[in-house]
Amino acid sequence: xxxxxxxxxxxxxxxxxxxxxxxxxxxxxxxxxxxxxxxxxxxxxxxxxxxxxxxxxxxxxxxxxxxxxxxxxxxxxxxxxxxxxxxxxxxxxxxxxxxxxxxxxxxxxxxxxxxxxxxxxxxxxxxxxxxxxxxxxxxxxxxxxxxxxxxxxxxxxxxxxxxxxxxxxxxxxxxxxxxxxxxxxxxxxxxxxxxxxxxxxxxxxxxxxxxxxxxxxxxxxxxxxxxxxxxxxxxxxxxxxxxxxxxxxxxxxxxxxxxxxxxxxxxxxxxxxxxxxxxxxxxxxxxxxxxxxxxxxxxxxxxxxxxxxxxxxxxxxxxxxxxxxxxxxxxxxxxxxxxxxxxxxxxx
Length: 348
Fold this sequence. Notes:
By secondary structure, the chain is an alpha/beta fold. The chain has helices at residues 22-34, 51-63, 77-83, 107-117, 139-150, 170-173, 186-195, 200-210, 214-222, 224-242, 244-259, 263-285, 297-327, 332-343, and strands at residues 40-44, 90-93, 127-131, 156-162, 177-180. It contains 14 helices and five strands.
């Protein structure tokens, strides 16, 4: 999934429209200045932290019409076209999010991608190819992409984006310069929101919820209803984790959603549940442990005390297994019912 973020100039030492990831920006800027641009990069990290924005910033820097020390200037025709995602020398492919059944990037997508990359640049000196959701490459697609990585055109720069480097074949990883990107600190997210006119109180609330995912922070800041929906979803998931009757209703709703084709939404809900169970596991070991969902600490502490360490671990494992079963096309009702059995177990 793309984690596009609107350009935000926040680094006084850099023209790059990237929030955070200063070390990576410095390395890429130095490569550009010294003429040592690598033919392939792999940006690794969770979605929503600015991976795609960084990829487009690199594309802007490569295609910018300004002198090298000023790149990317953000104002020339090339930078503006890259920012609007319409530059003819920048190509991007990703998982087809509009198709709920799409789970892999197909070989047909890569073939079109390779055909585009084989053409000489139309306007700039480089042709930049971005592969988002690279961890979802099918086996055939990965093999086809490898051929380009092995013998890239001299004018080409490939940028792969993935949540987990090890989800890609070693043959692909070994041909890329890898950068691991981390979620942004909450104070950085909060300050970025305040600079956009968000009140300090609301910015702090959003920064706590998104756990360093700046794209999600901007989305919630722009849509008050989205923030309310997120908090409501959080409360519903915690209730389902805590009360057997709520668990049953929760699982029935997810099963119906999945049947109606809302598979991405169901997986996202289960991923949230997995994050909460992981927090509860930390609290089962130490009630003062730092957790991701700090706003739910009191409820998760009570849950951890009630279930104990082994019971909380079992619930986390069941949730992760449910996610894996859905990915493997196990019938949703069976996968979710199995999860519910563990969640509703009475533990000392």
